[in-house]
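Weekly modeling sync, notes
Attendees: S.R. (lead), two postdocs, one rotation student

Agenda item 3: backlog of single-chain predictions. S.R. asked that every request posted to the team notebook include the full sequence so nobody has to chase files. The rotation student volunteered to paste the first one in as an example of the format we agreed on. Action items at the bottom.

Example entry:
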Amino acid sequence: MKKNTKILRSDILNKTYNYIYSNLEHQITLDELSFINSVSKYHYHRIIKEETNSTVFSLVTTIRLQKAANLLLTNTDSTISEIASSCGYISHSSFIKAFKNRYHYTPTKWRDGAYKKFSKELLKAFPSSRDFSNIEPEIKVCEAIKCAYIRHKGYNNEIKKTWQKLKAITYEKNITNYREIALYHDNPTIIPLKECSYVACIEVSNDFKTLSTFEIPKSLCAVFYLKGEYGDLLNFIRYAYHFWLPNSGYEVKTTPPYVIYKKNLFTEETKEFELNLYIPITVAY
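Predicted structure, as returned to the notebook:
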């Protein structure tokens, strides 16, 4: 595949994810998605199928349900119908059916605690007895960040190869003094790790042209500082979403969380990481 074709496909995938996450409450059609990407419906559908191994409809549905699963945990003042509507479901019954088919529980049972069993099973390979309850976030407005990126499917040690490629590009293009950022489109504590979409990023200037770019939007965030080893971040994300957020007085937005590394275990010869985790939030009224 030619370099320009790869960049074009990355741009299409990025525009697609951004549009879906920004318009979850609306009905999203193939016509809209192909239009914003300036390609035919046939060509667009083929690209999405080849890049994600999923149809456009399945991709939208998966993102809707993943966000609903998150919101059921964190947005405790919202009714199930309100959450269903915010994720694009017009019919309450169709939402319940789709959610149960995806997560094996009804939204009510999920909210009542079934998510803990589901999450524990997903993270059984990363047992942890660490107590995170003493870690409190700073609540602040975080400015927009322009990023160049490479996507990686799955949360696993293969992420290191993606980071190595990104680092090689920075070396060849003489890019220095940048921040390393990871974007989590999917919550890895309630989504099978092999299905998670992980995005390795570096902060770049507005005139950067070498790789596909996107912007992390300006947002109010809960910012957690964390040090640990591989697996600790997954368990901390579970703590933040399952325990801190439901009792915090804040609700999560549909925009994805991200981390900014101080020490990146995927790019340095170390088993430890040091980072800030940013969770976009809004005040619960």
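Discussion: group reviewed the output briefly. The radius of gyration is 19 Å.
Action items: rotation student to repeat for the remaining queue; S.R. to check formatting next week.
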